[in-house]
Amino acid sequence: MKKVKLLALGLLISVSYNCKDFKKGYEDGKKAAEEEAAAAAEEMKEEVMAETIKFKMEAKSDSNVTGDVTFTQENGKVTMLATLTGLTPGEHAIHIHDKADCSSADGKSTGGHWNPTSTPHGKWGAEEGYHKGDIGNFTADSDGNATVPFSTDEWCIGCEDDTKNILGKGVIVHQGVDDFTSQPSGAAGARVSCTGIIQ
User: Fold this and answer.
1) At 105, is the secondary structure helix, strand, or coil?
2) Among 171, 198, 160, which residue's Cα sits nearest to residue 60?
3) 162 burial via Cβ count (<10 Å: 0-12, 13-18, 19+)
4) CA spacing 20 to 30 A to 124: which of 79, 108, 154, 166?
5) Who's near 147: CB < 8 A, 6+ residues apart?
6) Between 132 and 49, residue with greater pLDDT
7) Distance CA 18, CA 12 (A)
8) Which CATH architecture describes the domain 51-196?
9) Taking the model in full, what pTM does it have?
10) For residue 184, what pLDDT band results from cuts at 50, 70 and 90?
11) Cβ neighbours of residue 104 closer than 8 Å, sequence gap 6 or more
12) Beta strand pairing status for 90-97 and 77-85?
């Protein structure tokens, strides 16, 4: 009888230790899984916060102006980088227009400047007002090449705010210079290159 009791007690102690080991293993595994899930969530958050879309510029109005334009959204800001070739040396204007439609030979299928807040045309940041598409002027070098950087927190890529969302709009490079005063477009001349901002 004593042997049976001792055997039962031994089994009980063994089961107790095994349960403790199992519990510890379970808790360790759970902690590791939670840490892994948190790291994956943080990685996804960073991926969502940084988004890049890139487009080819198409020559218009019998020009040879082509290139690429990239938009990157990160930490609440959108940065545009346009790289252009085939321009005449000197100053030109670049704007975001109302439609992502480059089907016409003169680029006018993109409509007017993107102006969701119904303000006057002007230089970006002007107190008198400016369009959300009023990027401004840039200079092409003697070989007709240019790089145009622009960054703002007044744009977004695919957000629900129609006064900020650039998707569905077009990028237009003009032959001339934006005078920042002529309404509604700055008298910037022919549209020599075009792309639609689409996803």
Assistant:
1) coil
2) 171
3) exposed
4) 108
5) 81, 82, 83, 84
6) 132
7) 10
8) Sandwich (2.60)
9) 0.74
10) confident
11) 60
12) unpaired
